[in-house]
Amino acid sequence: MRMTTALMALAITLLTATVVVGGAWTVRTVTQQRHQIATLSRDGERLRAALALAEEDGASLARRLEDAEQGRERALADLATLQRTVDETMVPREVGGSADLPVERAMSRQGETLAAFAARENTTVAVLKALNPWADETRVLQAYQLFWLPKPAPR
């Protein structure tokens, strides 16, 4: 009987030790789980806040992208308009009628000076030099040299 009592005492001691150790392990595990849950909750809150900021940034970037695309479309339309204007401007067009320039041509006589030619054509040396910058008043003119003259006023 002593053996049975001793075995029972040993069994109770082992059972108690198992319960105590198991309970301590369970308490430790529960504590670790609670700590992990608290950490994950904080991480979740941080990630939600980051997600909210990212969504705001994403919305802002989407607006900026849309504005840039609209600006690009406007620039392409402006470029097309300018290209049409350039194309239309480069098309040769016939000018109707004759050009009525306020100048006419006259020929010099052999041995004439620029002053004598100007007097014969009813103008001045200064006007002749303005219309004919190459003319040299110090040289005698050759026959049939051409000069630009102002047209006489209509009468």
Q: Main sheet, how many strands, which sense, barrel?
A: 2 strands, antiparallel
Based on CA inertia axes, which overall geometry fits?
rod-shaped
Rg, Å, rounded: 55 Å
Helix content percent band? 55-70%
The largest sheet has its strands arranged as 1-2
Total domain units:
2
The N- to C-terminal Cα distance equals 162 Å
Q: Let me know the number of strands.
A: 2
- Helix count equals 3
User: Would you tell me the structural class of the helices and strands?
Assistant: mainly alpha
The H/E string reads: HEHHE
Residue fraction in strands: 5-15%
Q: Uncertain spans, ≥5 residues at pLDDT below 50?
A: none
Mean pLDDT: 85
Protein name: LysM domain-containing protein
Keywords: Coiled coil
InterPro entries: LysM
Organism: Pararhodospirillum oryzae
